[in-house]
Amino acid sequence: MYGIPFDCDFQMVHLRKSMVEEVLGGPIDRWSSVPTYDELIRISSELNGKVPGVAGVGLMGARGMWSTYTWEHVAAQAGMMLFDENWEPIFNGDAGNKGMDTILALSKNAIEGYAGAGWGENRAAWLGGQVATNISWQDSGTQAMRPDQSQIVGDFVTIYEPRISGGRFAPPNIAGSTSCVAASSQNPEGAFLMLAFLTTSSIMAMNEANANGVGPGYRSVLTNPNLQAVSQPAEVMAASLEYAWCAPRLPGMFEMEQVIGNEVNRALVNQISGKEALDNAAAAVRKIMKQNGFYGAKPPVDYASVAPGLWVGKDKALPF
Amino acid sequence: MTDTSMSGTGVASASPGMPDRHFKRRSKRLRVMFPYLLVTPAVAFLLMITLYPGAYAIIQSLFYVKFANWQFVGTENYRDLFGDREFWTALWNTFVIGGVALTLECVLALLISFYAYRDPWIKGWRIIFLVPMLFMPSAVAFIWKLAFMDGRVISDLLIRLGFIDNNIGWTSSIWLSRLTLIVADVWQWTPFLFIIFVAALQGQDEEVEEAARLDGAGWAQIFWNISLPMMRPVIAVAVVLRGIDIMTMFTNVYIMTQGTPGGTTETISYFIYRIGFKSFNFGYASAASVVMLIMTLIIAQLIVKRAFKSGKE
Amino acid sequence: MASQRRKKNESHLFRYIILGAWALFCLVPVLWFLSIGLRPRTEIITQQPIYWPHFSLDAWHMVWTDWPMGYYLRNSVVSIIGSVVIDLVLAIPAAYSLARYTYRGREDIGFYILSTRMMAPAIVAIPIFFLFKNMDLLDTVWALMIIYAAINLSLITWIIRSYMLDIPKELEDAARTDGASDLRILWEIIIPVILPGIITAGVIGAIFAINEFLFTLLIASTKSAYTMSVALANFTGGSDGVIYNAIALVAFIAFVPVFLVVVAIQKHLSRGLTMGAVKG
Amino acid sequence: MAQIELVGIQKKWGAVWGVRDVNIDISDEEFIVFLGPSGCGKTTTMRMIAGLEDPSEGEIRVGGERMNDIDARDRDAAMVFQGYALYPNMSIYENIRFPLRMRKVPKAEHDTLVRRAADLVEMGIISIVNPQLCPAVSDKELPWHGRSCAARKCF
Fold first, then answer.
1. Could you state, in order of their start, the residue ranges of all structural domains in chain D?
2. In this structure, are strands D65-66 and D57-62 parallel, antiparallel, or unpaired?
3. Could you tell me which residue, B169 or A245, shows the higher pLDDT?
4. How many domains does chain B have?
5. Does residue D76 belong to the interface with chain B, where contact is any CB pair within 8 Å?
6. Are residues A80 and A161 in the same domain?
7. Domain for residue B290, yes or no?
8. Which residues in chain B are contacts of A291 at CB distance < 8 A?
9. Is the ipTM reported for this complex over the cut 0.90?
């Protein structure tokens, strides 16, 4: 089993320094000022509309993967496990619902465009000073420092992701950005060929290809100069193959990301309840899993061999 | 008829340069085949670009496709599709968004062309009104995405005018989100209908109009009772062409809403694109394509053929 | 009498209000978008919209230096002109056949050609994608050329056909008795006579090709085949987010030539847009 | 040589009769006029003689030779059309020259032949002398349109 590391994203919370300090009544401490999501809900509701044109919180609520990521990351703070031992999706458990409730509460203080906001829209609103707090990846912090793009240079603090009170930390693996390749799998070359012509989607395709069992042949493909010419990630990955750890994606992951996110989005715009959304998502995901060879005699990928990587938090101390 | 005449052949003998007469027997087969030969390259080219994809889509729609790995699933994709809420929503959205946009475009284009066609500065108006149509559709989508959503310009203007108090969440409400797509489409494509309607109005016989005026009809009456009925075939053709394009609406959805909220702005084209190129479920997307293709063919037979029959020659 | 004159003036006034309002609706977004292209990026998405921004050529420099816009422009021009040439070579004989001969199946063939105009790009996108992949044509200007030609062939055929129908049949009969063969007639009489119609068809086809988005998005996924319309999408991806001022400038760079050409063929425009069904 | 015989010529479009059983014998250098109300088949008959229309039945003979299967372009018949049918993309000079080009008459002879034809229809030499000065046909309907049309048929 080899892993292909790239683009490791962390969900973080970014704060507008001046505004949040005013609400907190003192300087921000990165570790303790906003310890829980409940606290973020409170702060963002106080901040919402306080300054004309500035909303309490920005979050990615668009259909598809954006909503999926937001829900997963938040629910992970409540200790969500996505699947049980038999790969049955268990989204509609306590943790999953807690995550959903948290997002729904946050959405009341959210910027008006959050339901259509993917990464690009969220980034623009944050850098343009339209939100007082923002849930996004780490690069929203580095980009806010660039005066050619950012209105809020010097007026922001990035804190680590808040917990959900009572929850335990569990990194969700369903859409993690790290890919892996199972050395034991079949049909190695086919999926990677996708990359040769799909650079805008190459990252997606590569993940998907990995998940579908790309075998030992992957290296020859990754080191192919033609592929490297069109896909810079391929070049980087090829160089760091030996040093990788792995957290495999599930086969059919992109389909799952889409269906989960679409349901979460429907809940965010009040078309269905959060519980319904999670039930619908679980049913859809189960179907996709089945089509990809789960629930049969032999799982499509040998996950046991990567168990340590799958569950990073289990036997390890939290970094803070 | 009467001045048609044949010149005598007497002069022919006076032309020493003409070669000797030799009557070439024509090949009857070539004669019959000739028009087919002329049209063959074009048809062959189009067949390549429609028949192959058609067959490919039909075959692929019977599989669960995971890149190079195809699992035969029979008609499962179709059964799923007809039970898929998102598919029916997409169909309904396409119909609703397209219908409202098309109606608005038609009414506005009629209104404007009615006021513009006899204006002395019609040439100037026409150039101005053409401008939106000549922008790349993707750019137009960005214009309106920025105006409605990212830049909040329209919310701001409405606040300044005192209509509302807070910024509007365009993407959170079904009809507001659809409205953004409709406005973008109306802005860009009303000129299309306008240009056609003005040409039709200018092309109509002035004497009929003058006769009606002598009979005491006013402008509006003339328009309603004479111009409009005379324009019917033109309107039919224009609406059919615009309708075809609206039914395949993709760019605006892709750039502006991506189907938010909850899939209520997702058109059928975007649905197929999303299933195919975001979920990578090509078999399912192909099944949707096949259904769409059949619907297109039915619409083409029922409506388009008739419109173009009445409109031509 | 006086009241009637006033009434007339009022109706004039009303007309100019309507036309003026529509002109504003058409032009204001365009001018505002131009101002987006000429302002610094930090003044585009802000707490409150900025209506009087600072002037900046940031985007202009970005468009020509950071992105090889000249190269994209070349791709656009090559693929579009190539597609129009392919179309004219195929469409002129086909249109001649449809306009001038009576034979079995003519109506059906004509309608088949027309019906390809109705095909939603999304319907054929996936198979076409794999077709080009198998032909090793993805990410090439050739693929774009073929796809644009396919999209526009019906349009161009029908426009040219309509112009051919306008030519009096006598002209051909005369040429025939003068000893010209059918192809000779097409080449020496028909094509020169309907040249304005052919140009119209080509220009309208070119505009549709410039505007094509979905296929270009799928086929041209690397820089080697980016065209203007995909270059736009290029400004939206990556870690830099949507770069609106660059998008605005690219849109105007593409708009100007299109506008000039269209103004030049204005007279034929309505006819071309309706595929010949409306004679303007 | 140019004796024309029409034997039982018929033309039918579907159920509509264009021409019904025409039998005419026209001898060489004879001058003949068809007269009749509109729609009686004068033009159709002539178009069949010129080869622009195929008779549904019957036979056309020129100089005793059966012409039915011979293309209009190869029949070497001449016909002046109601609407003149001048080629709008060519000058009058070029119009008159067109049949010469089509019938592959050696280029060197063209000028002489065009002038002679123009003289025959009394077109006046002005429009012919310099092909470049020749007005384009599409300019306007000029008095010599009909004549140049006839001139084209004078070879």
1. 4-75, 92-151
2. antiparallel
3. B169
4. 1
5. yes
6. yes
7. yes
8. 64, 71
9. no
Nearest to B138 among C36, C233, C279 (CB): C233
Query: Tens digits of per-residue pLDDT, C48-92?
Result: 999 999 999 988 988 888 777 788 888 888 999 999 999 999 999
Q: Does residue B60 lie in a domain region?
A: no
Domain count for chain A: 2
- For residue A126 the two structure tokens come to 């944050």
What is the CATH number that goes with domain D4-75? 3.40.50.300
CB pairs B-C closer than 8 Å: 281
Give the nearest partner residue to C170 out of D78, D85, D103, using CB atoms: D85
Structure tokens at D35: 């007269």
Chain B residues whose beta carbon lies within 8 Å of the beta carbon of residue D43: 1, 4
A95 and A232 fall within a common domain = no
Please judge whether B131 and C276 are an interchain contact, meaning their C-beta atoms are less than 8 angstroms apart. Answer: no
Ranges A151-165, A220-234, B48-62, D119-133, most confident? B48-62
pLDDT at A240 over 70: no
CB < 8 Å to B34, chain D: none
Alpha-helical regions (H) of chain A: 17-24, 37-47, 65-76, 94-107, 119-127, 139-143, 188-193, 202-211, 218-222, 225-230, 232-240, 253-268, 274-291, 307-310
Measured CA to CA, the distance from residue B72 to residue B65 in angstroms comes to 9
Is B235 among the domain residues?
yes
- Reported as a single tens digit per residue, the pLDDT across A30-51 is 778 888 899 999 999 999 989 9
Pick the residue with more confidence: A165 or C141?
A: C141
pLDDT at A225: 61
Domain co-membership, A112 together with A231 = no
Q: What is the CATH number of the domain that holds B166?
A: 1.10.3720.10
Residue B107, pLDDT above cutoff 60: yes
Measured between CA atoms, the residue of chain D closest to residue C195 is D89
Helix locations, chain C, DSSP H: 2-37, 58-61, 69-100, 106-115, 121-134, 141-166, 169-177, 182-185, 191-193, 195-211, 214-219, 228-234, 244-264, 266-273
Confidence of residue B140 (pLDDT cuts 50, 70, 90): very high
Residue at B7 is within a domain = no
Q: How many CB atoms lie within 10 A of CB B21?
A: 14
- In CATH, the architecture of C66-273 is Orthogonal Bundle (1.10)
% of chain B residues with pLDDT over 90: 51
| Chain C residues closer than 8 Å to B292 by CB | 120, 122-123
Top residue of C101, C164, C176, C178 to mutate, by most chain D CBs within 10 Å, is C178
Pair (A65, A193) in one structural domain: no
Could you read off the pLDDT of C184-198 as tens digits, one per residue? 899 988 999 899 899
Contact residues on chain A for C239, CB-CB shorter than 8 A: 139, 143
Q: Taking a C-beta distance cutoff of 8 angstroms, is the pair D3, D47 a contact? A: no
Out of B42, B53, B199, the one facing C124 most closely (by C-beta) is: B53
Q: CB B9 to CB D104 under 8 A?
A: no
